[in-house]
Every structure is written in structure tokens, then in C-alpha cells.
Design brief:
Mean pLDDT: 81
Largest sheet: 11 strands, mixed
Pfam families: DUF87
Number of helices: 20
Radius of gyration: 28 Å
Strand order of the largest sheet: 2-1-11-10-9-3-8-7-4-6-5
Organism: Novosphingobium malaysiense
Protein name: ATP-binding protein
CATH class of the largest domain: Alpha Beta
Number of domains: 3
CATH superfamily of the largest domain: P-loop containing nucleotide triphosphate hydrolases
GO molecular function: ATP binding
Distance between the termini: 71 Å
CATH topology of the largest domain: Rossmann fold
Structural class: alpha/beta
Keywords: ATP-binding, Nucleotide-binding
Length: 495
Amino acid sequence: MSASIVIGETPRGEPIEIDIKELLATRLLVQGNSGSGKSHLLRRLLEESAGIVQQVVIDPEGDFVSLAEEFGHVVIDGAAYGEAEIVRLGARIRQHRASVVLALDELEIDQQMKCAAQFLNAMFDAPREQWYPALVVVDEAQMFAPAAAGEVSEEARRISLGAMTNLMCRGRKRGLAGVIATQRLAKLAKNVAAEASNFLMGRTFLDIDMVRAADLLGMERRQAEQIRDLARGQFLGLGPAIARRPVAVNIGEVRTGAKSVTPGLVPLPTASTEDMRELLHDNLHVEPERPEFPRPAPRTEDAETVARRIAANEMLEPTGAQARDREAERQRAEADPEENRAAMVEIMNEMAKEEDCTFQSSTTLFQDFTIRCRMKGISVRGLDATMFRRGFAAAIAGIDDPDDERWLDLQNLAKHVPDDALAPFYVIARAAMDGKPCPDDTELARIYGTSSPRRVQRLLDYLEKDGLLVVRTDFSGKRSVGVPDLGVTTTAVEA
């Protein structure tokens, strides 16, 4: 297998290659203003090397998810998972050598930095036997390794900069080769940029960035002006994996496309001034309708599902013990679905009675649940982590069978409650349905999985603002909690 790829050609039509083996040892820095073609360059690099080396893409704008369709990358939506799940996925990726795209476009910048840091640290901390070679491509690297504190929190900057420093300074011995792209070298931490030995410099206009780019390319400062004159998609390359002297490269074509494209000109509307005025002011005094209850953002796949896809490597045919395990799983799945459901509910109820179970992470609980099911020969096919969390919340509240007609209205109402708040909501609603007092803050805190009663107060305020609960405290200090959609309320007791 050839370890070199063609990244583009010179203005005279001569092909320019990148030696992937050398790149793994020496890393790459890409720089260019917005619109210079950085993302196009990264896409060309990823497409051409997809069959040679494992790839991990940190994608803050969601532009590289199209690699999944053409090259089989697993797309991980960073907004859909918690910290523990991201760490587990990062570890699985190194173990199973999966090529992935971590899409962070649904997160705020602080959350992007923390998510990427946890993900990179999990890969960095893999055991020695899993130090397989991998390209780690980080687009908009100045966001994750800023040269100075900005509008982000100091905590997010610290952990993100630490992860990027580990990747570029110490990642080589662990098989991780950083490929970082930035709009401005001046905004990128110097200790991160300094570890790259290969450079592809695109068009830039600010003097400070041009001078720094010229220094990295070994050019005299009076030659820095030519960096301003580079065309879109044209870069100056230098480094042991590219060329020993600066060379102009016109980046080649790509097969996949980005989600974001440069907008073109479209005709302006032809409406008259009066018509446009009417459109803008029509019903201006009417507020937009607000949904009755907030609905949590849909999750396309839970962490366990993605982890199983990575571990199973679905593109390969199962053989040997793996094939026997899948056959056994298929046979279990063919058992009576009603029996399977009843057995799973029983296991959830047993787990809910265990001391301090609410203080364990949902990922740990789900893993424990799947192990117990398999030990009893129960198929868990079709059950994901989200379904488990909601079923386990019902078990915590003592709802033995959530499908019982008695709980039908409560279950429909609970669809509008976030997963983490579901167990306390179920407990309060059941107390109201049974005409019993609402549990005190200490008990609700235990059910919520916290030792802070203040968090319970914030939770009740949140549920009340969204119309799910009505909390009433009389002059004697007694509290009752009503569930207006069910028409029930708890008895009043001291809060």
C-alpha cells in the first residue's frame, strides 16, 4: 500500500504529494483567512488518506459529517452525550481504530472546548497496546488552543489548551498525529503551533500573520507580501512530508461537500414598499405561540449504540465466536416480546431498590442492566440508553409496570419532562395521585442523585415555570405540590 497521496499540483501542473508516514511523525499546520480554502484542503487530505490511516476529525461547524456517506466515518454528535459517554467513546475509538467525526456545531463555544478536551484526553490516555497511528484533524484550532483568554471561561480554556498541547507535543509517541487548521496564527497558542514541522499557508492579509507565516516557511520578510496574493485554494507548502523548499500548491478536487457553502447572489423580492411594510408589521403585537412543555432535543443515537457500532465494525462479516454470539442474540430476540419486557421491568425494579443507585451515572446503570439481562438470557435488542433512563426513573418512583392503564396519563405527561428530572417528577406525581404528602427536599435530593437540597429547589422552580407542577406554601409553612394536567395535588406538610 502506498503511503503517499496527491494533495494537488503546482501552477505548472506537477503533482504535489504528502507522505502520510512522514506526516504521522511530523504533524501539520494549515493557516489561511476565511475563504482561503482551508476546509477544502482538509477535506482533500482526509479523502485521499481515508484508506491508509485511521482518522479522527474535531469538527466545530459540522462541515465534515458528509465523510460518513462516502468513506464510512462514524459521526458522533457531541451535543447528544454527557461527559462520561464522550470519554467512553474516545476510549472505544482507539481500541477499535474507528474513523470518526466529532460534530460540535450544536454546542456553545465553552461546551465545544470542554467536549473536545474530554474526547482528546480519552484518546491520549489509551493503554500502550492501543497506540495505533491516527490522524487527528482539528479545524478552527484557534478556538481550542487560544493564545490569550477571551470571552470563554478560564476553566474551558485551561482544559482545552491542555488537551491540544498534549496532542501536538506528546501525541506522536502515542500514534496521534495532529493536523490543525487556523484562520489566524496570532490567535493560536505558540506552544501548539511550534510542534508542527509541515506547513500549508494560504491567503492572509494581516501583517502580523503574514510575517509569522513567512518565518515558518523560512522566507525573508520582504517575501511575505506574496502570501497576500495567493488565490483561493492555493497554498505554500513546506516540510519533510511535503517539500524541502517552499512550493506553491493548487489543492485538488474533492468528492464530498460541506454543509455550509458560500452564499451566491439571488434576486431581491419584487414586492412594493407598501406590501413589504404590511408584511413586516402584520400582527406585530401578537406574541408567538409558546409550546406548552419544553421537549428535550432528540438524540439520534445513544452512546451505547455508537459504541456497539464501533466495536462491532459493521462493515465486516462476523466470524467464529462473534458469529455464535450474534446467533444467540438473535435467538433471544425471537423469544416472546411480552416476556422479555416483563423480565426487564423486574430487573429495573430490583436495581431501583439498591442503596445509592440514584448516585450512579446513567451510563454505569445501563451497563449493569444489560449485563444482568444477558446473564438471564434476556435480549436487550431495541432498548437504548434513553429508554432505559426513562424506565428506571419509573422504577425509582415505585411504578412497577409503567404500561398499566393507571399510569397512562402520567406517562403521556412525562414525555415533556427532561430525562434527568423524570424520577423526582414521577415521585411527586405519584404522591399526588395517591393523596400523600410530597417527599421533603432531602428525600427528593436523594432521588435526584444529589446531596444538595438547593438543586431540588431549582428543579421545582424549573418544573413550575414550565407548567408541569404548581408549588403552594401556606402561611403556616406547609407545602403542597399539584400536577395541574392530572388534576391532583399532594397533601400539605411542613416543607
